[in-house]
Amino acid sequence: MQKGSAAKDKPAHLRLSEDQTTELADMFRLMSDPSRLRIILACLDTSTSVGDMAAALGLSPSLVSHHLRLLRAGRLIQAERRGNRVFYLITDEHIRRVLSDMVDHVAEESEGDLEA
Predict the structure, then answer these.
(1) Which among 6, 80, 88, 109 is placed 20 to 30 Å from 47, CA to CA?
(2) Model confidence over 12-40: pLDDT tens digits?
(3) Exposure pattern of 81-106 as b/e (b: 16+ CB <10 Å)?
(4) What is the distance between the alpha carbons of residues 116 and 26, in angstroms, rounded to a whole number?
(5) What is the model's pTM?
């Protein structure tokens, strides 16, 4: 049996060390701020620059930069320099799936409310 598949056989609460549990809690804390979550979602499907994000989200470029610094430190977003501009994108497939699934869940719930 492979090491990775053996770990996945364990219940979720037994697969993480105390430090990893703290890291996971920190990731959720970072995503709990509505502005940061909007920034994360803006980077979900396409690489985006600070200026484009700020304009699209109605936030100041300095606030977007501040949030991006925190999100990069939390390993939620990656940066890629192209010439003199930096673009941000979610490249980790786990993060992309979780966020996409949660967006689908919330949108589905809202659509169900309209039908009731």
Answers:
(1) 109
(2) 888 999 999 999 999 999 999 999 999 99
(3) eeeeeebbbbeeeebeeebeeeeeee
(4) 37
(5) 0.81
